[in-house]
Specification:
Layout (H helix, E strand, L loop, with lengths): L13 E6 L11 H11 L6 E6 L2 H10 L2 H8 L1 H5 L4 H19 L1 H24 L8 E7 L1 H15 L16 E5 L3 H11 L21 E3 L5 E3 L4 E4 L6
Length: 241
């Protein structure tokens, strides 16, 4: 099923993109989250366009269309042996698949990244259609769990490649806030680096580039850098891996 970006009519200058984590996050079971956000916005809720990015169907499609499903199931057997809980076993199987896809499947990684970039472009275009120039748009991304990884990858590609028309300097697309909650980016970086050459197309996996994780940014011809986000906050917790 081809990805279709969400389209919204703006009534103000602000937009928020909610990027979901792993699990069954789909449009039919997320209205409560949007209601909570709107409640937090209070009287400003009508002036903020709220978008959501769902990508679980990409993972499901890739599992069904490849032989990797059996490999992922085999990889979880050692965990299942020690856990006498069918529901927890199903959860483990689902999480292992979602976490390994970004590392082991370059096709799945690229598929989600291109969908993410298409959604970002649609948000910017919706703002312009409402009469809000790109430089005056107040854009926020709030991502959870694996959504943080996809956000990190997408913003780096958006800043690096002009074909997306989403660069912070050349195209003036800068995010006021990017908030990563329960981010596994460092975990994925560690796993990918340990796998080394087994990771296909490593050069396109931004999470493993450089000596440390870095801010998505565009480097001008004069050497100065403009970050994609004016403020980036990454939150982890004691129970995160």
């Amino acid at each position: 099923m081809p990805f279709t970006p969400q389209h919204k009519s703006w009534s103000g200058r602000r937009a928020v993109l909610l990027v979901h984590g792993i699990g069954n996050s789909r449009p039919d079971n997320s209205p409560e989250l949007v209601q909570l956000l709107q409640s937090a916005l209070g009287s400003d809720q009508d002036s903020v366009a709220v978008y959501q990015l769902f990508y679980d169907h990409f993972n499901d499609w890739m599992v069904e269309k490849t032989q990797a499903k059996s490999l992922l199931e085999a990889a979880t057997e050692s965990l299942k042996v020690a856990i006498d809980d069918p529901e927890l076993n199903d959860t483990i199987a689902e999480y292992v698949g979602d976490i390994l896809w970004p590392v082991l499947s370059s096709n799945a990684r690229a598929m989600v990244r291109e969908a993410y970039l298409a959604q970002l472009k649609q948000i910017v275009d919706d703002g312009e259609a409402a009469g809000v120039p790109v430089r005056r748009q107040k854009l926020t991304i709030i991502a959870h769990s694996l959504g943080c990884f996809h956000t990190y990858e997408a913003l780096h590609h958006a800043a690096k490649f002009p074909t997306h028309v989403l660069q912070p300097a050349s195209h003036e697309v800068r995010f006021a806030n990017v908030i990563l909650m329960a981010s596994p980016v460092q975990l994925i970086r560690t796993v990918a680096n340990r796998l080394g050459s087994l990771v296909p197309n490593r050069r396109w996996l931004e999470t493993v580039q450089g000596e440390t994780l870095s801010m998505p940014q565009e480097v001008r011809t004069d050497g100065t850098a403009v970050t994609s986000a004016r403020q980036l906050i990454s939150i982890t917790g004691d129970l995160d891996p």
